[in-house]
Amino acid sequence: MPIFAHVSTFVAPPPAAVVYWRWLLPALLAVAVLRLWGLPSAALPDYDSVRNWQIIQEVAQLDWRHIFHHGSPGFYLFFAPVTWLSTDYRVYLVLNALVGVAALGVFMSWIAQAARLRGPETALLALLAGSSVFLTFSGRDFTMSSLSLLALAGLMRAHWRRLQVPTRRNLLRSAGWLALGLTINYKFLLTAPILLVLELLQADGLLWRRGNWWRVLLVVALPFVVLGVLAWVLSGVPLWRWPAVYFVIMFPAAANAAGRQGTVQVDFSYYLRYLTDFESPFLLPALGMALVWFGADLRQRPTTMGAYLLVWAACTLAGMSLLIKAPRGLLFGYIPMYALPVLLLQKWPRSVALVLLVLALGYNGWQVQRQVLAYAPSSYPQVAAWLKQRQIARVATSVGIGLAPAAAPQQITVAGANNLRQLAALRRQGFRYLLLDDYYRVAGVQPFDTLRRAPYVAAWPEPLLRSPLLYLEHSEYTGLGYQATLQRQQQAARDTLQLRLIDLSRLPLSEAR
Known about the structure:
Elements: H1 17-36, H2 47-60, H3 73-83, H4 89-114, H5 119-130, H6 133-138, H7 145-164, H8 168-184, H9 191-202, H10 212-235, H11 241-250, H12 270-278, H13 283-293, H14 305-320, H15 334-345, H16 350-373, H17 380-389, E1 394-398, H18 403-407, E2 413-417, H19 420-428, E3 433-437, H20 439-442, E4 458-460, H21 468-473, H22 475-478, H23 482-492, E5 499-503
Parallel strand pairs: 1-2, 1-3
Antiparallel strand pairs: 3-5, 4-5
Helix pairs in contact: 1-4, 1-5, 2-3, 3-8, 4-5, 4-7, 5-15, 7-8, 8-10, 9-14, 13-15, 14-15
């Protein structure tokens, strides 16, 4: 069967679902293998992943005091039932990775139907997007990215249907998916401007007709009311807590531990440099070509799939260039960006298109090995076992709490300190040892550098704490630019030991300020 049988997929008959699923399922299986490769030997890679793991266990016990942490109650409720079966962090890593693969499947089935792709083309698109560096990296943590992509697939699919068949029912269905997304990830708020742009381009007035706008607002507000009341009843959480999370995130009252304050950071080079260095070399040229090729389709009513995906990709890239940055800032644009080259290559000779896509897949695989798979396995389980053997039941750590999931089965208490004063307070509470965890370097909390010269009792490597992607993911927290972030990573990568166990009694913390 030829890979590209038609000059344009927009004139080809739609494929039968059984045809593209016959191609799509093996592609998704290959992506699942990539996402799960070596994952059981990995750790929860960042503070948020560990904190999410902890909060889910609280929520499962109907303790909702922290359910609005990061404005993500839907994420915690989704995974809470798993706690009744297992609290092993590796179970959550695997399940979250599979959710990411499921999200990819929903996206691919929708794009295949809407863009009239055939089976082989659908499989190639799934492999290309599924092997992207960031989606592979984020599919191996325990944050909201995977579940957010699943909700985003539902939102984009529903809104595309609303543009094709402009009825109130389809409009409210889109609003329902937006409301669901907001329960999973506060960053779903950033989809609202993109949806508004598409509504203005559609120019059919459906949103404003016959009071539809207030119906949309009611649908979006419903989860805030229902979950807010439940949290108040179960744990006494104030009704304003969830909306307050949005305000605090957008307008932080004080600098964080890394010294970053504010959310606006105009820099149009950050994401361009990231995409050039880490993702497929086809993305930026394809985005430029799509602006020319599919830009004209924006005048059509309803618009084409190429133009629809172009708006999502371009608006995400442009909008996030105005705010504090990390690769996850482009989360809502990665799959549209990877879909655009495939749609454009439909217009090229079959042999040329096939060669280019195979080269792109090979490049992705090479990058994933270098930037993701190479930074494993984790040493936290060995640290926990060492502590257990020596009957050390309490350990302080520097900013990062990555040891906590591995230490929990050993009944070892792990307490993180964000500064030297907190560390001194933990010592007064009876903590004898500090695990100087190089996560503090990733998070940009520099005062802990003064402790690196202290003698250590034991030390271990932790490869992930040298990862460029992990550093870039925290540039949103540190407020550093692209080059400054990678310079810090390169300095840290020279060290061979990232975890040092230090006797707290030997540290002059009384002098810390």
